[in-house]
Design brief:
- A hairpin with a 7-residue loop joins strand 11 (132-137) and strand 12.
- This protein starts with a helix and ends with a strand.
- 5% of the residues lie in helices and 41% in strands.
- It has a single domain (2-237), classed as Sandwich (Immunoglobulin-like), CATH 2.60.40.
- The protein has a five-stranded mixed beta sheet with strand order 9-15-14-11-12. Strands 2, 17, 20 and 21 form a four-stranded mixed beta sheet that branches.
- It contains one helix and 21 strands.
- The protein is mainly beta and 240 residues long.
């Protein structure tokens, strides 16, 4: 029942996700960029501290574990917001993107939000020396449910073939969660701890810029990118 409820929510979040239009890659010259900052208009709440229910000698032994469902600093900057262009059909290849690596350290997935290009295997590391379980929940791609013993330092997930948002959890340590943003193009960024982001080498044109956050939801904004120019876009999520 829980899985059905989650998949229903996930399908709503996926509305507007790119992936249906065919994307064409080429060498972009004289492209522009988009940069900015994402903030939150609501009250800043202290992140919930998580008390591990298992493997306490490893989980949270060195660093306390806090929920990452909503990370907002004192300036109201929001971390872990995915910023992407949803209607781009031509641009750089995903080969320009770094290798996707999801780490498990201190019984926390790092990073909490990871951008993954289609066609690229995801490396999952286990730095804890205890058993973990990599369990993905998806709609368009086959799900994965793999045990990763402490002696197995790395495993590789098969490449995703279709762009979508994928939830990752660990069945051994129920508080562990992460998100994989599977994309067919490299025009995606995740906001850092100061809420900032930057997307480079964008072909000039008019685009729809989308902002997604697991707790705050989704907002979008129309932007125009000009050659060799940086477009400043600052967005504020309304209070919840």
């Amino acid at each position: 029942m829980k899985l059905k409820i989650f998949l229903g929510i996930l399908s709503l979040l996926l509305v507007g996700q790119p992936g249906n239009a065919k994307y064409e890659s080429y060498s972009v010259e004289g492209g522009g960029s988009i940069s900015g900052k994402v903030t939150y208009a609501g009250k800043i709440a202290k992140p919930k501290k998580i008390v591990p229910a298992a493997d306490k000698t490893v989980c949270g032994a060195h660093d306390a574990i806090y929920s990452e469902e909503l990370v907002v600093d004192t300036s109201k900057a929001v971390k872990n917001v995915v910023v992407t262009i949803t209607n781009i059909t031509r641009g750089l290849s995903t080969r320009s993107m770094p290798q996707a690596v999801l780490d498990q350290k201190g019984c926390v997935f790092r990073p909490h939000v990871l951008v993954v290009p289609i066609g690229q295997a995801v490396t999952v590391r286990n730095n804890d020396g205890i058993i973990h379980n990599v369990h993905t929940q998806s709609i368009k791609n086959p799900p994965v449910n793999l045990a990763q013993p402490g002696s197995v330092k790395e495993i590789s997930l098969n490449p995703f073939k279709v762009p979508e948002l994928v939830k990752v959890s660990c069945d051994v340590h129920g508080w562990m969660s992460a998100w994989l943003w599977v994309t067919e193009h490299p025009y995606v960024a995740v906001t850092s701890s100061d809420g900032s982001f930057q997307i480079l080498d964008i072909p000039p044109g008019k685009y729809k810029l989308e902002f997604w956050h697991e707790t705050l939801g989704k907002l979008s904004q129309e932007v125009e990118v000009k050659g060799d120019k940086d477009m400043k876009v600052n967005l504020v999520f309304p209070a919840k």
